[in-house]
Design goal:
By secondary structure, this protein is of the alpha/beta class. 44% of the residues lie in helices and 15% in strands. Strand 8 and strand 9 form a beta hairpin. Helix 4 packs across helix 6 and helix 13 packs across helix 16. The chain is globular, with a radius of gyration of 25 Å. The two termini are 34 Å apart.
C-alpha cells in the first residue's frame, strides 16, 4: 500500500481502498467513482493520491463551456506528456479522453482523475458513453503494464449516483463507488484541535464534520469562545462561510434544484419539526403530493434523510442531514436583517434558546447514536451492537408513548423483527440539568414494556447520555450494577 501523506487527516480506509485500486497490476482499464458533498475533502484526497503516483488530475469548472473545457483538458494532457501548452488541438471528447488514457498508461501507476464531472455533463452529456466505449475497447489489456485507472469525481450527488444506475453507459463497469462522508465527531474535534469537548460538540452541531470548513472558519479559534467564533464566522455576512451564502451555494450544487424558494421552504419546515410529507405539505399550505418530488431530490442529494423506526413499521422520520443548512434555516434566516445590519451578537442572544432546543439537543441525540454504533462496544457486555436508531414505545397503562432516543438491537438482529434481542436503550438530553434516578426509572419502565411486548430484554443495557454529568446517587447506582451505562461528554469524546 502507498504511504498516506501526513497532511491527509483520517481517511485511512478510503486511502487504502484507492491505493489498492490504482496499484492493481491488471492490464485492463479500470474505473472508479468518488462522490461526496461539497467541503468533504474529495478533491484534497484525490489530489494527494494523484501527486503520490504521478497521475493526471484535471478538474472541471462550472462556468466553462464545451470548447474552453476541451482546450484546457488538452493542455493538461500535453503538460503531463512533457509538451508545451497548445501542442495538442483536440476537437472532440473522444480524442481528449483517448489521449488522456494513452498518456497515463506510460506511467508506472497510470491514473487519470476527472474532478467535478457534473460540470462537464451540463454541456457534454456524451462523456459517460464515450468512457464506456473506451473501457470496453481496453479490456484486453494488450500493454506491458497495468491498464489505465480512471476516477470520476463530483459533488452533485444525484448526478454521480445516476452514473451507475439503470441503463446508464457505465453501469456494471466501476470497481469502486466511494461515497466520501464527513469526519465523525471525534475525528472532527482532533482535526480542529479543539480542547473543550462542549465547544467541539457545539461546533459539530453547526458545521458537522466537513473538513473543508476549517480553512475558512478557523479564526478566531473556537476555543477562544464559541459565541465569539460563531458571530464572526457563520453569522458574519462578510465571511465566505456565512450560513446564508453557504446554504445557497450548497443548493446550487445539484442541477435538479431549480425552484429555490420551494426548497428553502421545505428545509425550513423540516428544521422546525415537520417530519413527514403530510406535515411538511401542511406547513407550506400545499398538498402532500406537491412536496413528494422535492423531498426525493433533497434525499438523493444528501440534504435530508429518512430514519426508520427500529422496532415498528411506520412512516420514516424526515430530518435535515446538513448542520449548516439547519443552522441557516433556524437561526440566520429569521434574524437575517439584524445580522446583516451588523448586530450578530444581539441576533445570537435572541436565537440562543432555539439553538439549544432545536439544534444542540437533536444533535446531541444524534451523536449518542453514533457513539453507540462506533464506540460503545468497548463498554457493553455483549460487545458490538447491531442496528441503532430510535423508536416509540406505547404505554397503555399511562395512556402515553415513550420516545426512545437511542435503541440498539443485538448484533445479527434485523430492524422491525418481532421478539428481537435489544442490546441497549438510551436517553440523551442536552439540558443544563444533570441526569438522575428519575431518568433511570423511565428507562427501566420502557424496558419492562418492551419485555411485555415480547422483545428479549434479558441482556439490555440502559444508557444515559448527559451534557452536564449525573447526580451522585445515580453514579453510586451505576457502580453497583452491570446493566447501566453513564455517558458524559468526556466518555462521548473518549477523553479524560
Amino acid at each position: 500500500m502507498l504511504a498516506k501523506p501526513e497532511d491527509v487527516v483520517d481517511r485511512d480506509r478510503e486511502w487504502g481502498l484507492l491505493t489498492e485500486f490504482v496499484t492493481d497490476p491488471d492490464p485492463a482499464m479500470r474505473l472508479g467513482i468518488v462522490s461526496g458533498r461539497r467541503r468533504h475533502g474529495k478533491s484534497y484526497l484525490l489530489q494527494a493520491l494523484s501527486e503520490r503516483v504521478g497521475g493526471l488530475y484535471v478538474t472541471a469548472v462550472r462556468e466553462e463551456g464545451r470548447l474552453p473545457a476541451m482546450r484546457r483538458f488538452s493542455d493538461a494532457i500535453a503538460a503531463h506528456a512533457g509538451l508545451r501548452p497548445g501542442t495538442l488541438r483536440l476537437t472532440d471528447w473522444r480524442e481528449v479522453l483517448s489521449n488522456a488514457l494513452d498518456v497515463t498508461v506510460r506511467s508506472q501507476t497510470p491514473l487519470l482523475v476527472i474532478d467535478e464531472l457534473p460540470y462537464l455533463l451540463q454541456h457534454s452529456p456524451e462523456i459517460p458513453g464515450l468512457l464506456q466505449q473506451l473501457y470496453d475497447e481496453r479490456q484486453r489489456g494488450t500493454g506491458a503494464g497495468p491498464g489505465a485507472r480512471v476516477i470520476l469525481c463530483g459533488s452533485a450527488m444525484s448526478v454521480m449516483h445516476e452514473l451507475l444506475s439503470g441503463t446508464k453507459p457505465l453501469r456494471g463497469r466501476a470497481v469502486i463507488d466511494l461515497r466520501l462522508g464527513a469526519f465523525d465527531y471525534r475525528a472532527c474535534r482532533a482535526f480542529w484541535q479543539i480542547g473543550d469537548p462542549l465547544t467541539a460538540l457545539q461546533v459539530d452541531a453547526v458545521l458537522g464534520g466537513a473538513p473543508g470548513y476549517r480553512p475558512v472558519a478557523a479564526r478566531p479559534h473556537p476555543d477562544d469562545g464559541f459565541v465569539s467564533w460563531l458571530t464572526r464566522t457563520l453569522l458574519d455576512p462578510g465571511r465566505a462561510v456565512y450560513s446564508r451564502t453557504e446554504t445557497e451555494y450548497l443548493l446550487r450544487e445539484d442541477p435538479r434544484i431549480t425552484q429555490h424558494t420551494l426548497y428553502y421552504d421545505i428545509l425550513t419546515a423540516i428544521a422546525q419539526g415537520a417530519t413527514t410529507p403530510t406535515r411538511i405539505g401542511a406547513a407550506l399550505e400545499r398538498q402532500r403530493n406537491a412536496v413528494t418530488h422535492p423531498l426525493d431530490v433533497l434525499e438523493s442529494t444528501g440534504y435530508i434523510r429518512r430514519e426508520q423506526d427500529i422496532l415498528r413499521p411506520r412512516h420514516p422520520v424526515i430530518t435535515l442531514a446538513d448542520p449548516v443548512i439547519r443552522f441557516n434555516q433556524l437561526i440566520t434566516l429569521p434574524q437575517a436583517a439584524t445580522v446583516e445590519e451588523g448586530f450578530a451578537e444581539e441576533a445570537w442572544q435572541a436565537a440562543a434558546p432555539t439553538f439549544n432546543s432545536k439544534i444542540l439537543g437533536p444533535h446531541f441525540e444524534d451523536l449518542a447514536r453514533t457513539f453507540t454504533r462506533r464506540y460503545a462496544h468497548t463498554l457493553l457486555p455483549g460487545g458490538l451492537p447491531g442496528p441503532v436508531g430510535t423508536t416509540e414505545v406505547a404505554d397503555p397503562g399511562a395512556r402515553t408513548k415513550h420516545e426512545v432516543d437511542v435503541i440498539a438491537l443485538a448484533l445479527g438482529e434485523r430492524p422491525q423483527a418481532p421478539r428481537a434481542r435489544i442490546a441497549l436503550l438510551g436517553e440523551a438530553k442536552a439540558t443544563a440539568a444533570r441526569r438522575g434516578t428519575g431518568d433511570l426509572q423511565r428507562l427501566e419502565r420502557i424496558r419492562t414494556l418492551l419485555a411485555d411486548q415480547g422483545y428479549d430484554t434479558t441482556g439490555t443495557t440502559l444508557a444515559l447520555f448527559s451534557l452536564h454529568g449525573f447526580y451522585p446517587d445515580l453514579i453510586d447506582s451505576a457502580a453497583g450494577r452491570d446493566d447501566l451505562l453513564l455517558v458524559d461528554l468526556a466518555t462521548l469524546y473518549g477523553v479524560g
